[in-house]
Amino acid sequence: MEVFMKSPMTIKKLVVLILLLVAPVFAYGAPSSKKQEEKELKAQQEKDLKTKNEAIDFYNQGRQNYKQGQKETAVSNFSKAIELYPEISSDAYYFRGHLYAEMGKNDEAIADFTKAIGMTPEYKEAYSSRGNIYYNKNQYDLAIQDFSKAIEMAPDNKDNFVNRAYAYSGSRQYDLGIADFNKALELDPQSSSVYVDLGTLSFNNRKYSEAITNFTRAIEVDPESPKAYKFRGDAYGQQGEDDKAVSDYSRAIELDPSDGEPYFSRAMIYYVKEDFQKAWYDINNSKKLGAIVDEEVLSEFKSAAGK
Q1: E-assigned strands of the chain?
Q2: What is the DSSP letter of 4?
Q3: How many whole angstroms separate alpha carbon 65 and alpha carbon 248?
Q4: Which of 166, 169, 129 is nearest to 149 (CA)?
Q5: pLDDT tens column, 33-80
Q6: For 11, which of 17, 29, 90, 214 is 20 to 30 Å away at the CA?
Q7: Phi then psi for 181, rounded to 5 degrees?
Q8: Widest pairwise Cα distance in the chain
Q9: What's the DSSP call for residue 219?
């Protein structure tokens, strides 16, 4: 039986032939795949850019709605922007948080301010805004933390010191509150409102003489401040200085005739002085201007005046 044996040359040719057949696959297959990947990448980038631009359009429309007071529409547009492109901007969360706060949705507002801070850790306005909500929820320790963070980033902003002072007051840390009010006055010595705030804190802490001093300073800075006169009248009343209280209430009424509170307070003093005609006039005006007056009190004043 004859056995056919392949020579080495024959095998070598066979290998070369196989390589020639396979070579085109490697030579042309890779570039084709790379081009496809590049095409897909470009298509994805174009899609992402389109989505981002749509999100920006919704955001800008939300800002416009916000300025125009269209709260519900603004929230809707900010939400669409965030849904399309969550990384669009911490501002979208910030402004939506403000709207939620104005709408009384405090938990949603806190969540949005927290998200804005997470995206932009130096967002001092978001800290201040979240601190205000914590304060309104009587969560004073959290409010103090946020206002303190805002102060670290903006130590020249008196409003943050004023806000933290109120938070300290809420947590009964009166000395720290007074220190913050005084710091605010260092930053703005001509701020009548801060003197009023400081006087109010002293009044609430039953330091009436100190309160009178601060309300007087507020009046010196701004002689047209009805609040300063009204609150100083309250402090004088607490010290039994009725004539001075009446004088301040009268000035407050001159400056702001739409406020029913000084009418009410002055009515109480007139009643004690048995000047019933004036007492009735004031209590009646107070009620007309929206002050809450118990019907029994109103009836008693009316009867005393012979009406």
Answers
A1: none
A2: P
A3: 43
A4: 129
A5: 777 776 666 666 666 667 778 888 988 999 999 889 899 999 999 999
A6: 29
A7: -60, -40
A8: 149
A9: H
Q: What is the pLDDT of residue 31?
A: 58
* Distance between CA atoms of residues 106 and 115, nearest Å: 14
Which amino acid is residue 30, in one-letter code?
A
- Token pair, residue 163, equals 């806000």
CA–CA distance, 138 with 116 (Å, rounded to integer): 22
Calpha distance 85→54 (Å, rounded): 9
Amino acid letter, residue 292 = I
Q: Mean pLDDT score of the chain, rounded to an integer?
A: 88
* pLDDT band of 25, cuts 50, 70, 90: very low
**pLDDT attached to residue 44:** 62
DSSP 88: S
Cα 3 from Cα 1, distance rounded (Å): 6
Please give the structure tokens belonging to residue 171: 């947590």
Say how far apart CA 112 and CA 115 lie, in whole Å: 5
pLDDT value of residue 34: 75
CA distance 140 to 232: 27
DSSP conformation class of 123? -
- Number of neighbouring beta carbons within 10 Å of residue 141: 10
CA angle 48, 110, 187 (to 5 degrees): 110
31 contacts: CB under 8 Å, gap ≥ 6: none
- Residue 65 near residue 73 (C-beta atoms within 8 A): yes
Residues shown for the chain = 307
The secondary structure element, H or E, covering residue 139 is: none
